[in-house]
Design goal:
- The termini are far apart.
- This protein has seven helices and no strands.
- By secondary structure, the chain is mainly alpha-helical.
- Helix 4 packs across helix 5 and helix 4 crosses helix 6.
Amino acid sequence: MSDKKGFGSTVLGWFVTREGDDQHKESAESADALIAKYADQAPAIPPVQLQGELPKAEGGKVDFAGVYTAAGLSQEEQGHVEKARNLLSTLPAETPREVKRQIVEASLKAFGFPVDKIIETGAQSIQALEVYIQSGQRDTQGLLTDAQKRLAELETEMANVKKLMEDQVAAQQALTKTCNDEKLRIQEVLEFFGQEAVAKVVRESPKLHEPKSQ
């Protein structure tokens, strides 16, 4: 088994695969399915706990230092990983992987940075980011659930208001028709006495007002 294969089987589930890696063929599977699939192969790793209020990721911008600090990683530990990454980036791309490893390890040891500790910190950082992702997913799901519930409540309220409006319009139409029917019945009596008599009474009565022309 190649070193690449061994590395993949050891860390798959909490490391990100790259395009071109053999294990990338399985990327169509969900993360949960992959984690479950390789659970027996992965070493037992205690879950990382993020303490305190986690930094917000406004617009996808993440305060990585804040996440690592929440996972209990000191500024010094974070700096060691960054140092190793910077050293690696200075090497020519065509340099063989094993040669790169020897150069970086020798440089780190010369600076007094323990390689095993850097590896441990790097792995812990990745686990911390995975926990942070899952925390964000829970928050997002909670917000979506609450939002869907609120939308359903608003839709119900809108339907109730619409029905109230329709009922009120229908009631007003019925009221108008009923009153107009009654006016016609009374109008028959007034018409019997004649228009001039009605007009005279309306003009002389302190209780009545002549209708104004529109």
